[in-house]
Amino acid sequence: MATDTAHDNQLAQELQAQRKELQDHLDIVQELVVKLDQQGNVVSINRKGCKILGRSRAQILGQNWFDTVIPAADRPGLKKIQADMLAGRHSKSSQRENDIVTKTGERRRIHFRDTCIRDSDGHITGTLSSGIDVTETRLQGRKVAALQRGLSQAAGFGVLGEVAAGLAHEINQPLSAISTYTDACLRILDNDDPNLAQLRHALNQVNQQSRRAGDVVAQMRSFTAQPQPDAVLVGCNALIRDLMDIITDEAHNHQVSATLDLEEPLQEVSVDPVQIQRVILNFFANAIDALQTIPARDRKVAIQTRRDGDKIRCSVIDNGPGVAESTVPKLFDPFFTTKEAGIGLGLSICQTIIRHNGGRVDYQPNPGNGAIFSFTLPIPPQHDPGSITT
Ligand SMILES: Nc1ncnc2c1ncn2[C@@H]1O[C@H](COP(=O)(O)OP(=O)(O)O)[C@@H](O)[C@H]1O
Ligand SMILES: [Mg+2]
After folding, report:
1. Are 65 and 82 in contact (CB under 8 A)?
2. How far apart are the first and last CA of the chain?
3. Out of 48, 94, 153, 348, which could bridge 334 as a Cys pair, Cβ 3.0 to 4.6 Å?
4. What's the CA angle centered on 84, arms 243 and 306, to 5 degrees?
5. Cα(21)–Cα(40) distance, rounded to whole angstroms?
6. 3 vs 66, which has greater pLDDT?
7. Which whole number is the average pLDDT over 308-323?
8. What is the CATH number of domain 231-378?
9. pTM for the full model?
10. Three-class DSSP category at 42
11. Whose CA is nearest to atom 27 of ligand 1?
12. What residues are in contact with ligand 1 under a 6 Å CB criterion?
């Protein structure tokens, strides 16, 4: 009996030592690491997590993670994700971004990776998430988007447009050279005794110039081609809310009344957040431009999100002049524009971005007046749960 107790004590001590070692390991990790039980209560959190949240471990342990650190609007969606994980319906390498609120009320954007925790029988007993604080990176992305928007406002087109305008000029030169040389070829051939050396020279020029135009197109492609999207799981509504400062400012400056009409809760999508925000801003900028033609008191634009079957649809709806029926087929063509200072690359780039993110863009007339530009994004399928065993 006495030896049993001694043995139990030793085991308990070893267990204690192992726990401590594990906690020490977690504490040197420079990511937030948090373990939740099935109710969403915090079972353990590492030092970095406490630091980001500005709370001591004692203040967090045992608290409900969602009710304590998640902004109220995001709680239902994130609770649903946890419920799905606990039910075994979650992607193995699930990644997503969401905000957490620190003790002082500041929001931090965290890029999370989640996995399930299983007991020795394989039952899911909780979830483990590790997260990197990407607040500054995202802020940078927003600044770039705002800057681009600001530039396009000031100059009628953005940095991208400026480069594209240059490239268009570059293409025009070889094209007019080709046309001159082919004219010359035809004239030479009209002769009874065509000068073959001149003909050869002219055809060589045509050849060289068309190669040159091809090179310019290749350059432009590499410029407008989007890099592989940096996909994370993120809510479209959150992406739109992040843009509210810019949207409100722009709407105010152009005497437009802008409203949000967001479906809640909404499934997350796996996308490159900054790219999707660029598309929303592009649609929005076009709506603002279109609305300048109607009286200020009537100008309205709404940004809407909806679940649409197995997709999420995001639409920018305005009550401007809309698009003439004959124009609709050209809307997404590169360089198609009806604006004096327009470049006509906005919608074509939006289309490329959305395609790269697995969705599609659409135009529809707004019943009544105006235009609806929207894009869809697929809701990622749910896979087998990832898991670790405790
Ligand atoms: N909300 C809208 N209402 C009416 N026309 C629009 C709207 N959005 C885009 N368009 C039309 O599509 C064209 C192409 O848009 P875009 O590719 O963004 O290029 P840009 O804005 O430089 O003209 C615009 O010139 C305009 O004719
Ligand atoms: Mg545009």
Report:
1. no
2. 30
3. 348
4. 40
5. 25
6. 66
7. 97
8. 3.30.565.10
9. 0.56
10. strand
11. 338
12. 286-287, 290, 318, 320, 322-323, 331, 336-339, 342-348, 371, 373
The first and second tokens of residue 301, run together, are: 């634009």
* Burial classification of residue 8, based on how many CB atoms lie within 10 Å of its CB (0-12 exposed, 13-18 middle, 19 or more buried): exposed
- What 8-state DSSP symbol labels residue 41? B
Residue-wise pLDDT tens digits, 268-305: 999 988 889 889 999 999 999 999 999 999 999 999 99
Token pair listed for 171:
């293409």
Phi and psi at residue 88, to the nearest 5°: 85, 15
As to burial, measured by CB atoms within 10 angstroms (0-12 exposed, 13-18 middle, 19+ buried), residue 379 is: middle
Report the pLDDT value the prediction gives residue 56, as an integer from 0 to 100: 94
Query: Nearest residue CA, atom 5 of ligand 1?
Result: 323
**Per residue in 119-168, pLDDT tens?**
989 899 999 999 999 888 777 666 566 555 544 543 444 445 555 666 66
Q: Where are the domains of the chain?
A: 31-133, 137-225, 231-378
356-378 mean pLDDT? 95
